[in-house]
Amino acid sequence: MPRRKVRSHRIVQGTPNSAETNSTEQQTAIGSSNVPVTPEEHIEVQNETGETRRVRGRTVLSDLYDLDPVERVQVSSNSFGQPVGSEARLLAGYMGILARNANMLPINFESWHKVPESNKNQALDNIKARFALEVSDAYVKKALGKRWRDHKSTLKKEYFKTKTTLDERLQNVPPGMLRYQWEEVVRFWTSKKGEDREQVGKQSRQPQKFTHTAGSKSFACVGHAEELSSGQKVGRLQLFDITQRKKDGNPMTPEAAEIMRRQHREKLMFKKDMKNSSYNLKQMQQREKLRFNENMKNSSSSLEQMRQ
Fold first, then answer.
1. Is the distance from CB of 70 to CB of 16 less than 8 angstroms?
2. Cα–Cα distance between 131 and 83 in angstroms, integer?
3. Helix (H, G, I), strand (E, B), or coil: what is residue 124?
4. Which residues touch 255 (CB under 8 Å, ≥6 apart)?
5. CB 44 within 8 A of CB 54
6. The pTM is what?
7. Per-residue pLDDT tens digits for 77-124
8. What are residue 251's phi and psi, to 5 degrees?
9. C-alpha separations of 68 from 27, 73, 131 in Å
10. In contact, 52 and 44? CB cutoff 8 Å
């Protein structure tokens, strides 16, 4: 898969940031291996049947580190303060890299809220060293938290759930992960508090009927692209219709199909109501016009009588 070229994005001039960390350290995708893996390179993975297949490695965005210290990738936002455009996808990929950096954002905390603000600010400064943002710091930290949780979830699925005993899980340290962090998080996952939290998470996800369906694009980026293409504002219902359809045009799920049918019925009813309203408005205007003409006629008649 070809690498996304940073130079194809909007580059602006900024000021050098002393908080920018060593390039070699940052290019290492923590959680994968100690050697940077570029998107052009491929790695082999083994499936449940024992067969191997080649897939691309983790996103590293090595071109991003080749920028001049005063250059930044310009990231625009929509009216809701969400990043949009191709630069938003680049930003999302970079936040994923930072979320996998065990030195910057350690995984041995129970929740994102308990990660020290100093670590979050370090990640934020690192982002600002390479991006000129139109989005708020709060948005960036929230997005980092989402990717940090996703990273922990992936580690749990691939390195914790695949083993049965505590010793096996403690020894199954993911490549590039710091052992002490892994041991702490494994002991938390096996504790009663950790198991209870997992059950709460499962129960919270059960009612969820719709998931993200736009791949590496955020819904904000999908809506922004549609607005640029059509020249019209995209509402929430229209965005739902766009993102909840398969390539053949059919709805993703029966629940999505039902909402689309309901939306179509409501749209027809709205048009009918608007048509009736327009008809009633015309009738009212005609009656007002007749009443006005009658009043004018009566006024003219009265004035003529007074003159006589």
1. yes
2. 12
3. helix
4. 209, 210
5. yes
6. 0.72
7. 999 999 999 999 999 999 999 999 999 999 999 999 999 999 999 999
8. -60, 150
9. 16, 11, 12
10. yes
